[in-house]
């Protein structure tokens, strides 16, 4: 092929292809020397990609582990808690979720969401650094290359899906036509498999790339002295003049991550930092007084009215039969007060002082034993998480309450009046509001 014809063929694919002489003196068109006219940054190359990969490696492992722990915290092995098809395969690691320390779920889910948000700029920078590989031609050169491309597709697709659905969930903005809970779990396992495969394939390359150029030397280089890496498939063959050093790129990505983290982390902490949580949804009525904390599902959404709540009776079913209690009847039983956080899958949490009847006392009042657990049902009008199976540990923990008051004040209607459960270390959706029936499940 002549040099002119080689250039025309390359231009047809949005590239300019250099022709080079082969051993026989003739010209050949090689994939390795294809030059993409749109990927010209002098920063892009093995070192930057490896550095971003290293920056993601440990944090992504933490995000994965805390995400799997979040799934375990839902006690999906108990009846009614999980409708995920194929759970038997996906839930091989499941165990009984503890109730002590009571802030455990607040820590794991808060870390999962806060770290995930902080990693968004790093993930975007990593995708930017390898974007030429996503469009390389020919798309498949060998079986090994095809497997690498497939793992890359699953990796990129998996992490984009998880981050997009996760951020939408944080904002309680459910625009997707599927269950976040189920889809996020499936997406997580797709991403985990691709992530493990990618790390196994690329870890040696990452180490070699980082060892090739000392970090101090790279980060000490000014913009004017910034040069492309010596070689590599991501290195531009006709680079543009540098407009930023690798040190500047690292600072930009790090500052973006720190900013997002700072705008979010206040949701998981008590105190003045809660005022800086600008990333939190701002269309919620937080209520007043002790009831001034986030509401994911309002009474109106749940079909609960004040008149219906005032006419309420709690049904307590167990070996002794079914008993009914008014709110005054429950208030006449021994009351207990505990400081417990309520933490939701969206990542927000807050510590409150709750007062009510111990669930363990209600189990015994219904004729149950210390080996029995509770099935909790809300009188809300349908919707997700209107019922939950509590484990034996959750049902018998001293701090597990059927709460009537928060902060010394009567629960507001949006926060579960006339009564709601509060379970130490459990996801907020398992702190059932508008409890209508408690059923003792015997061992």
UniProtKB/TrEMBL annotation:
Keyword Transmembrane helix assigned: yes
Key words of the record: Membrane, Transmembrane, Transmembrane helix
Organism: Pseudonocardia abyssalis
Annotated transmembrane regions: 47-74, 111-131, 152-174, 180-201, 249-266
UniProt name for this protein: Molybdopterin-dependent oxidoreductase
Renumbered residue ranges of the record's region Disordered: 221-243
InterPro entries according to UniProt: OxRdtase_Mopterin-bd_dom
Oxidoreductase molybdopterin-binding domain span: 304-442
């Amino acid at each position: 092929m002549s040099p002119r014809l080689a250039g025309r063929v390359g231009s047809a694919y949005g590239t300019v292809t250099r022709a080079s002489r082969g051993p026989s003196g003739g010209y050949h068109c090689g994939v390795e020397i294809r030059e993409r006219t749109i990927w010209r940054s002098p920063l892009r190359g093995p070192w930057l990609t490896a550095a971003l990969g290293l920056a993601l490696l440990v944090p992504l492992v933490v995000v994965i582990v805390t995400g799997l722990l979040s799934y375990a915290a839902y006690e999906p092995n108990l009846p009614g808690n999980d409708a995920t098809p194929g759970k038997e395969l996906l839930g091989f690691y499941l165990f009984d979720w503890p109730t002590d320390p009571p802030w455990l779920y607040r820590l794991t889910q808060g870390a999962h969401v806060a770290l995930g948000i902080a990693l968004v700029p790093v993930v975007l920078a990593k995708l930017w650094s390898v974007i030429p590989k996503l469009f390389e031609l020919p798309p498949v050169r060998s079986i090994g290359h095809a497997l690498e491309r497939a793992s890359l597709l699953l990796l990129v697709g998996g992490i984009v899906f998880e981050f997009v659905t996760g951020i939408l969930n944080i904002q309680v903005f459910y625009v997707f036509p599927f269950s976040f809970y189920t889809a996020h779990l499936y997406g997580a396992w797709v991403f985990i498999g691709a992530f493990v495969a990618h790390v196994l394939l690329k870890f040696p390359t990452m180490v070699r790339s980082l060892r090739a150029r000392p970090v101090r030397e790279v980060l000490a280089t000014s913009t004017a002295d910034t040069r492309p890496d010596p070689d590599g498939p991501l290195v531009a063959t006709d680079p543009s003049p540098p407009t930023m050093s690798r040190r500047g790129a690292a600072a930009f990505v790090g500052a973006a991550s720190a900013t997002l983290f700072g705008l979010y982390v206040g949701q998981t902490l008590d105190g003045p930092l809660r005022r800086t949580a600008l990333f939190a949804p701002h269309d919620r009525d937080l209520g007043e007084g002790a009831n001034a904390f986030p509401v994911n599902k309002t009474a109106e959404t749940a079909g609960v009215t004040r008149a219906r709540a005032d006419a309420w009776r709690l049904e307590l079913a167990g070996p002794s039969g079914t008993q009914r209690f008014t709110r005054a009847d429950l208030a006449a039983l021994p009351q207990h007060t505990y400081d417990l956080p309520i933490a939701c899958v969206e990542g927000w949490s807050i510590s409150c002082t709750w007062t009510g009847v111990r669930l363990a006392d209600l189990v015994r009042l219904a004729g149950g034993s210390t080996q029995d657990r509770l099935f909790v049902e809300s009188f809300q009008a349908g919707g997700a998480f209107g019922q939950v199976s509590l484990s034996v540990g959750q049902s018998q923990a001293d701090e597990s309450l059927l709460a009537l008051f928060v902060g010394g004040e009567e629960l507001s209607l949006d926060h579960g009046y006339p009564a709601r459960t509060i379970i130490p270390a459990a996801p907020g959706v398992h702190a059932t509001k508008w409890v209508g029936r408690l059923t003792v499940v015997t061992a």
